[in-house]
Design brief:
By secondary structure, this protein is mainly alpha-helical. It contains four helices and no strands. The C terminus is likely disordered.
C-alpha cells in the first residue's frame, strides 16, 4: 500500500512539474510575441508621426508606413542576427578572451554596422518616392542618432554590451 501511494505521489509530482515547465515556455513565448507586437506598434506610431509631419496624402501615407515598417524590421533583423544580444549566461570576459575571439567579435560588429549602413542607404533612396530627399535624410539620420544615443545611455549606466558584467564593450547601431 505504501509503495502505491509513493508511486502515485511521484507520478503526481512529475505531472505537476511537466505542466509548470509547459506553462513557463508558454508564458515566455507569449512575452516574446508581445514584445514583437509592441515594437511593431511603436514603429507604426513612428511612421504615422512622420507621415503626418510630411503631410502625405492617404495613399502616400499607407505606402510610406508600409515602407517604414519594412525598413525598421530589416534593421532589427540585422541586429538580431549579427548583434551582441547575448544568450542568458553567455557573458564575455573581455579581459580574458583570446586574440582570435576578439578579432571575430570586432569583425562581426564591423560587418553588422556595414550592413546597417547599406540598409539605411537603400531605404533612404526608397523613401524619396514619398518624401523629399531632405525629409528622407532627416528620418535616417535621426534613426541612426537615436540608436547611437541608446549606446551612450548604456555607457552612462555603466553597462557594457548585453548588460552588466560584460567588460564595457558597447553596442553600436
Amino acid at each position: 500500500m505504501k509503495k502505491i501511494i509513493l508511486t502515485l505521489c511521484i507520478a503526481l509530482i512529475a505531472v505537476a512539474g511537466a505542466q509548470a515547465q509547459s506553462s513557463k515556455k508558454s508564458k515566455k513565448d507569449k512575452n516574446s510575441e508581445q514584445a514583437a507586437m509592441n515594437a511593431q506598434e511603436v514603429y507604426k506610431q513612428q511612421a504615422e508621426s512622420w507621415a503626418t509631419t510630411f503631410e502625405l496624402n492617404e495613399e502616400g501615407k499607407e505606402k510610406f508606413i508600409e515602407l517604414y515598417l519594412e525598413w525598421q524590421n530589416n534593421r532589427g533583423n540585422i541586429v538580431d542576427k549579427n548583434g551582441y544580444e547575448q544568450k542568458a549566461g553567455a557573458d564575455i570576459n573581455f579581459k580574458k578572451i583570446t586574440v582570435e575571439e576578439a578579432e571575430k567579435l570586432i569583425a562581426d560588429d564591423f560587418a553588422r554596422q556595414k550592413k546597417q549602413a547599406e540598409t539605411d542607404e537603400e531605404y533612404y533612396r526608397k523613401f524619396q518616392q514619398y518624401v523629399s530627399p531632405g525629409h528622407a535624410a532627416q528620418m535616417v539620420i535621426q534613426q541612426r542618432s537615436s540608436a547611437a544615443g541608446m549606446s551612450s545611455m548604456f555607457r552612462s549606466l555603466g553597462r557594457g554590451m548585453g548588460g552588466m558584467g560584460m567588460g564595457g564593450m558597447m553596442m553600436m547601431f
